[in-house]
Amino acid sequence: MTEPKPTEFIQTPSQTVGPFYGFALPYERGPELVPGRHPHAIRLHGTVTDGAGDPVPDAILELWQADETGAISREQGALDRDGFTFTGFGRAAVDQAGHFTFTTVKPGSVGGGAPYIVVTVFARGLIHHLFTRAYFPEDAEAHRRDAVLGAVPPARRATLVCVADGHPGGTPSYRFDVRLQGADETVFLDFDA
Amino acid sequence: MTMKDHTSQSEINDEMRAIEAEARARVDDGGAPELHPRRNYPPYRSSILRHPTHELVRVDPEEVELFSPAFGHTDVNVLESDLTIQHRGEPLGERMTVSGRVLDGEGRPVRRQLIEIWQANAGGRYVHKRDQHPAPLDPNFTGVGRVITGENGEYSFTTIKPGPYPWRNHLNAWRPAHIHFSLFGTAFTQRLITQMYFPGDPLFALDPIYQSITDPAARARLVGTYDHDLSVPEWSLGYNWDIVLTGPKATWMESEEAHD
Ligand SMILES: [Fe+2]
């Protein structure tokens, strides 16, 4: 049974992250969920663009994901980078060209579903953050059974799937571009929470 | 960088009033008041090309989204909640505290979670290389703080009251004084970045970021309350601000009080 929701606890509205988060939100090795020397490290990178196709130079992104086995870390110290503990959380500000780069591992399947990384986007001009998911191109079979991808119009599903783009320095690289608006606009998710 | 826009304040005001009137008409017709700002809010010029034009796809959160990073005391030093002691001397400005509780949509405390804040100094200047406002930097103030919420979801920061500052949205645009807040809940779906404002600010009616929340009651939730009982004699002025994250769906699975 669910109790009626008390009306006095109404959610606090969002506001834009603004342009001046740069001295506050980025933290030491925030984009490195694992060190680059990790044997299973992958690069997840991309460019954030606006409705004119121009790069957004003042966006900041967060990743949240399961580990390689599909387990969700409960380790305290999610901002710590001790070089060994995988906490599943990372944060990267884009550069002047709107480009971001994370080093992480590919998450395992959680409960048998398709592996994915939760990507959250904040930017000046974006008054309320956006959630999306980055899936992996090699899991096409599992994508056919995925409830979230199934809720997305087929023509737009590709915006949620990374593109494999080589092995710079031996590290598998995946590109996940974020188009805030326009013809190939990224699918953003409302979790109805 | 932002292009200079020569739209006048009164033109921006007209745009904002038209949107609010339309939003009010929807509520009068039985629609629910909008709890969050509109991502598409043209009076805030930078939102025009930075909002999705498709509706968000509504989906159920899965296990990953229903958990959140576990922050802890290794992440944050207790001294980081006092923004006035980060340098050799005292910062200039009105010393103040802001304290309150972080709650979920059922009023349950959000315990042991991270809050990050950042703000301008008393003159309205950020320690950020792109801030062009010709107000002085304060060598004794950086304007960044962090804290982990307590067992009752409580938090408290000691800082100085930030100044209002100009920006280039339109001619003579000024942001009301505010402190940026970043919050995590027990589920990633509860993630929130917002701004806390100060009571009675004459710039509220003129600010497109504040007014992007079309419902006056929702906007008021971003304004801290001056609480004289939180003021410390001959030391600091006290503000209270409680924050409610979305919920309750997001918190069911971790809830010890789950009822079935
Ligand atoms: Fe600001």
Describe the fold and architecture:
The complex is a heterodimer of chains A (193) and B (260). Chain A is mostly beta strands and 193 residues long. In chain A, 4% of the residues lie in helices and 25% in strands. Chain A is built from two helices and ten strands. The radius of gyration of chain A is 17 Å and the shape is globular. Chain B has 260 residues and is α+β, with helices and mostly antiparallel strands. Chain B has one domain (9-244): Sandwich (Protocatechuate 3,4-Dioxygenase, subunit A). The longest helix of chain B has 20 residues, at 9-28. Chain B starts with 8 loop residues before the first helix and ends in a 16-residue tail after the last strand. Mean pLDDT of chain B is 92; it is low at 250-260. The interface between A and B is large, with 78 and 84 residues. Strand 10 of chain A pairs parallel with strand 1 of chain B, so a sheet runs across the interface. The complex binds fe (ii) ion. Fe (ii) ion (FE2) binds next to strand 8 of chain B.
Brief synopsis:
With 193 residues, chain A is mostly beta strands. Helices cover 4% and strands 25% of the residues of chain A. Chain A has a single domain (21-179), classed as Protocatechuate 3,4-Dioxygenase, subunit A (Sandwich).
Tags for this model:
heterodimer, A: 193 residues, mainly beta, Protocatechuate 3,4-Dioxygenase, subunit A, five-stranded mixed sheet, four-stranded antiparallel sheet, 4% helix, B: 260 residues, alpha+beta, 4 helices, disordered C terminus, binds fe (ii) ion
Blueprint of the fold:
The complex is a heterodimer of chains A (193) and B (260).
Chain A: E1 42-49, E2 59-64, E3 89-93, E4 99-104, E5 116-123, E6 130-135, H1 140-143, H2 147-150, E7 163-164, E8 173-175, E9 178-179, E10 189-190
Parallel strand pairs in A: 1-8, 1-9
Antiparallel strand pairs in A: 1-4, 2-3, 2-5, 5-6, 7-8
Chain B: H1 9-28, E1 57-58, H2 63-66, E2 95-103, E3 114-119, E4 144-148, E5 154-160, E6 165-167, E7 173-175, E8 178-183, E9 192-197, H3 208-211, H4 216-220, E10 225-226, E11 237-240, E12 243-244
Parallel strand pairs in B: 2-11, 2-12
Antiparallel strand pairs in B: 2-5, 3-4, 3-8, 6-7, 8-9, 10-11
